[in-house]
Amino acid sequence: MNKKRFLIIIFSILFIALLLLFPSTAIIGSRSGLILWFQILLPTLLPYFILSSLLRTMLPPKKSTAFFIGIGLFSGYPVGAKMVGEEYHLGNLSYRSSIFFLAFCNQASAVFVLSYVGNYVLNLGSSRYTFLGIVMLSTCLGSYFASRFFKEDHIRPYQNTISAKETASADKDSIKDPPLFKRLDQIILESFVSIAKIGGYVILFSILAGFVSALTFGDPYINTFSSGIMEITTGANSLLSASIPENHKIVLASA
After folding, report:
1. The model's pTM
2. Half-sphere exposure of 76 toward its Cβ, with a 13 Å CA cutoff?
3. Which residues contact 126 (CB under 8 A, 6 or more apart)?
4. For residue 227, how far is the Cα from the chain centroid?
């Protein structure tokens, strides 16, 4: 048994033990994560998933640098990260380029930062645009240093796993249905699958955040910081009820 598998087993056992020891905390955390996913992430991210994926299919395989930077800055993760990963596996991006663009995706979308964090959580008013600029500046710096750190650069060979029979079947289907609507149906289906996966992660990390809060006796700084590291939506939501000064909330939200 390798070390990674051993750590996963230990973590799973501890997580199950916490679920049994603190069932009410687990239920509250699960409910909170589900509400966050349904009310915040689903309406915010799903349109970006659909529209950015549709735009990607309309552009040539070799996309420009501006496309990935734009997707990273304005769509953030997981939309931009998912797209960069797919382009790398298709062989359209080198390893180092993928690392560079992934660093741009290591942030929430501009809509999420402006509307939810800047307006709803921090109540910054017009200053939320300055807050967004600070977040984007840190993203650009992180992207630069990440690309300098990873020196390895190679193209992943694309392996076509679609058989001739499947290709012929797809050609027949394309005759029956308009290509655009068929493509849009597939994109919507894949977008809902991706957003459902995100919901699962949000629920799990919301439960973990509840356990951290219980074990640290509700310390607002430890609670908000640890929640933000585990999952940004949970961390931002914890700032709403945290009894800390407003300028400290801004620093924690920027981190």
Report:
1. 0.69
2. 18
3. none
4. 15
- 66: enclosing H helix or E strand: helix 65-75
Name the helix (H) or strand (E) containing 40: none
Determine phi and psi for 94, rounding to 5 degrees: -80, 170
Q: What is the mean pLDDT of the chain?
A: 77
What's the burial of 19, exposed, middle or buried (CB within 10 Å: 0-12/13-18/19+)? middle
Domain boundaries, the chain: 23-45+166-255, 59-159
The average pLDDT across 97-102 equals 78
Say if residue 82's pLDDT is above 60.
Answer: yes
Nearest to 68 by CA among 55, 115, 91: 55
Secondary structure of 153-173 in HEC code, one letter for each residue? CCECCCCCCCCHHHHHHHHHH
Q: What gap in Å lies between CA 109 and CA 117, rounded to an integer?
A: 11
pLDDT tens for each residue of 153-198: 555 544 444 444 443 444 444 445 457 788 888 889 988 998 898 8
| Paired residues of 94 in beta bridges | 155
Residue 242 DSSP code: -
- Ranges 15-24, 148-157, 200-209: which has the least confidence: 148-157
